[in-house]
Amino acid sequence: xxxxxxxxVIPRTKAxxxxxxxWRQYETSLIAxxxxxxxxxxxxxxxxxxxxxxxxxxxPDDISSLTSDIVREYIxxxxxxxxxENHPYTPSQQATLSIETVRFRLRSLKAxxxxxxxxxxxxxxxxxxxxxxxxxxxxxxxxxxxxxxxIIKSIDRKSSNGERNYAIFITALDTGIRISxxxxxTLSHLNLDGGFIKVLxxxxxxxxxxxxxxxxxxxxYYIQKVRQAPTECTYLFVTNNGQPISSNTLKLLFSRQKxxxxxxxxxxxxxxxxxxxNYLLNGGDIFSLKAILGHSSLAMxxxxxxxxxxxxxxxxxxxxxxxxMQLK
Length: 328
What we know:
Blueprint: H1 6-9, H2 19-32, H3 37-56, H4 68-79, H5 99-118, H6 145-153, H7 160-175, H8 179-183, E1 190-191, E2 196-200, E3 206-210, H9 213-226, H10 247-261, H11 268-281, H12 286-293, H13 298-319, H14 321-327
Antiparallel strand pairs: 1-2, 2-3
C-alpha cells in the first residue's frame, strides 16, 4: 500500500506555506468565532512553543513540519521541558511542565490542524491520529481553614488596597470563578440584593454565580467606602489609578499574598478548587457545581468527588459507630 507524502496532502505550491501566515489567518477565524481573548492568548502561546521546538530541532517553520511524527516528538520535548524555561521574569525550575500544559499545547495544534483541513488548505487532517497524553488524576488538596485564616490575617485591611484585596480573595473563595472572570466583573453584572454575579465565562457564555452574605457585605463596603474610579469605569475591581484590574495584576496580587502569608502553595486557581471541594462537602450537588463553575461536562467536576470521598473516609474513621461502641 502506497503511503501519502507531504506533497500529496498539501496543495502543490512553489514552497510549503509558512506557519506564521497560516496562524494569523487562524487567529482571525477564532476572533470571528467570538472566542475569548484568554483562549486566543493561550493558543498564541502554544504557537510560540511549537516554533521554539522547530527552531531547536532545526526544522522548517512551515506546514511541512506539521506531521504526526514531528508532533509526537514535540510532545516528548514538552514533557521534558523545565517550567518557566526562557521566561523573561520567572527563573527556570527543575520541575517539568505539567501534563495539563502539555495537553493544552497539543490540543491547540490539533485544533489548528483541523482548521487547515476544514478550510481546504490541506487535503486531510494531519494530526487526527495523534492521541492526547493521558491526563494524571491528582488528588486536589484545597486550602485548609487554618491556611485561609492565615492569608486573611496577612492582608492589611487598614489600607484601601488591602480592603480591595480582601474582597477579591473572599469572592474567589466563595464563587470559584476563574481569574479572568474575576477581573471582568462589572458593576452592572453585580446584583447584591439578589445575591449573585452575572459572569462572562469561556466562549463568551454568561452564567449566574451566587454569592454569600459575607461576600455581599464585603463588596458593598468596598464599593461605597474604598473603590475610587472615574464614573465611566464600569468594572468592579480597579487599580489605584481607577483603571480596571487585569488578570495578570490579579495573579501578581496572589503571588505577593503567598509571600506575605507564608502559605507557599497559594495561587488564584487554588481558590477555585477550594470552593468546589467545600461546596460538595457542605452539601452541594455536582450538577449545580457544574453550572456555577461553568464547565461543559460533568467529567470536569467529577475529579472533585475523589477528594470528598477521601474526606468522608476520614470522617468515618473519626465517627465510626462500632469504634464508638468499643470505646464505651
